[in-house]
Write a structure and sequence with these properties.
The structure is a single chain. The protein has 2 domains: about 5-170 and about 335-370, 3-Layer(aba) Sandwich (Aminopeptidase), CATH 3.40.630; about 175-315, 3-Layer(aba) Sandwich (Aminopeptidase). Helices cover about 40% and strands about 25% of the residues. The protein is built from 12 helices and 15 strands. It has helices at about 15-25, 35-40, 85-95, 120-135, 150-160, 180-185, 190-205, 220-235, 245-250, 295-310, 345-370, 380-385, and strands at about 5, 50-55, 55-60, 65-70, 70-75, 100-105, 115-120, 140-145, 160-170, 205-210, 255-265, 265-275, 280-290, 315-320, 335-345. A hairpin with a 2-residue loop joins strand 11 (about 255-265) and strand 12. The longest helix is centred in the C-terminal third of the chain and has 27 residues, at about 345-370. It is globular and about 65 Å long. Pfam families: FemAB_like.
Length: about 375
């Protein structure tokens, strides 16, 4: 019989075996690589001290790793991007403890992808059932698996979880020869708006340099982190990730990073960081920041420069991150996402399940409405909505 194990650090699990499971999963992303999760832990970004108590769950047949997932007992709901603050407040108002809860996710990273890594569907089903059992054993109020793939959702539904649906905005390649060809497919007002925004950035004296992998210097990373901190400061918040985390990314996963640095008269003024999955030909917008305000620079650094790079380098998908209807005007189309949830308290479980059913119906209508306002010309809009 397979055996289950719970570890308090990703370092306890074999990196090569973990990454093999990931590579064979339905939707791998760089954020589920062992190196990424280990960097979150070792850098102090996601540990018990920051409210993320590791509970990495794995399934073994002798020395063979059959399935595994990154799990945490959470004492708060920060850094998740699937919002359950209202649920926590309802528990509090009824004199019940919502925390700790058991969470399967990539901390601070709202990128859809495989979460329950497994050699086959049977092992994935056992892992889903084990998560339910772990939530009970740890006195967690609930289990949440965020941004999982379709196989994850099916296994978790069979284990008694309910789906919650959301939307993000992604670009998918349509064979454009270059950024100019991409713009030509947009409706006239959208195209002119982008051209106007880029022209104003150029008129401000801004030039971009793109640096990939090992070409990103330590000085570039230092400047990026300064910008990253500034972005959080402007929102009266504290950065989730430490400088050491990004140092580990530079050393352990350099091939997965692309940085755009904006210069004016030879001085850095802004930067954006894009994650890359060369095997899947996918790119992911992650972070941005500037050391001075320049109108429209955000749109150029975070959307137009990455899209132009993706087209030039044969990438097939660019994911713009969580939320943001404004991304549609930049050519990113609505894309459904899903998470899975189970609550131990029967009455609250019934109430949440009813809410999720109604929310799901509303989300279906919202997606339809968004697709009716696609930024592309009629034929291209139909193609983009179906891709």
């Amino acid at each position: 019989m397979p055996t289950l194990r719970v570890d308090d650090s990703p370092a306890a699990l074999p990196r090569e075996a973990w990454n093999r499971l990931l590579a064979a999963s339905p939707r791998p992303t760089p954020f589920m690589r062992h190196e990424y999760l280990q960097a979150l832990h070792t850098s102090g970004s996601a540990t018990a001290d920051t409210g993320w108590q590791p509970q990495f769950l794995s399934l073994w047949q002798g020395d063979e790793l059959l399935a595994a997932c990154p799990a945490w007992l959470k004492g708060h709901s920060y850094g998740e991007y699937v919002f359950d603050w209202a649920w926590a407040d309802a528990y509090r108002r009824h004199g019940l403890a919502y925390y700790p809860k058991l969470l399967v996710a990539v901390p601070f990273t709202p990128v859809p992808g495989s979460r329950l890594l497994a050699v086959d569907d049977d092992a994935r089903a056992l892992l889903a059932q084990a998560l339910r059992a772990l939530a009970t054993e740890t006195d967690a109020s609930s289990l949440h698996v965020l941004f999982g793939d379709a196989a994850d959702q099916a296994a978790l539904a069979a284990a008694g979880c309910t789906a919650r649906h959301g939307v993000q905005f992604h670009w998918t390649a349509e064979g454009d020869a270059d950024f100019t060809a991409f713009l030509a497919r947009l409706q006239r007002d959208k195209r002119k708006k982008i051209q106007q925004e880029q022209r104003r950035v150029r008129e401000a004296g801004i030039e971009f340099q793109a640096r990939e992998g090992a070409a990103i210097s330590a000085e570039d990373w230092d400047y990026f982190y300064r910008c990253y901190q500034q972005t959080y400061r402007e929102h009266h918040s504290t950065p989730y990730l430490s400088r050491d985390f990004f140092a580990r990314m530079a050393s352990d996963m350099p091939e997965h990073w692309l940085m755009f640095v904006a210069y004016r008269e030879g001085e850095r003024v802004a930067t954006s960081l894009i994650a890359l999955d060369p095997a899947q030909r996918a790119a992911f917008g992650r972070y941005w920041g500037a050391t001075e305000h320049i109108p429209n620079l955000h749109f150029d650094a975070c959307y137009y420069q990455p899209l132009a790079w993706c087209i030039a380098n044969g990438y097939q998908r660019f994911e713009g991150g969580a939320q943001g209807e404004h991304k549609m005007a930049r050519g990113l189309m609505p894309t459904p996402t899903a998470s899975s949830h189970w609550l131990a308290h029967p009455a609250f479980a019934d109430a949440v399940n009813d809410f999720l059913a109604r929310e799901g119906e509303a989300m279906t209508g919202y997606l339809s409405e968004l697709n009716e306002h696609a930024p592309y010309k009629a034929k291209d809009a139909a193609d983009a909505a179906s891709s």
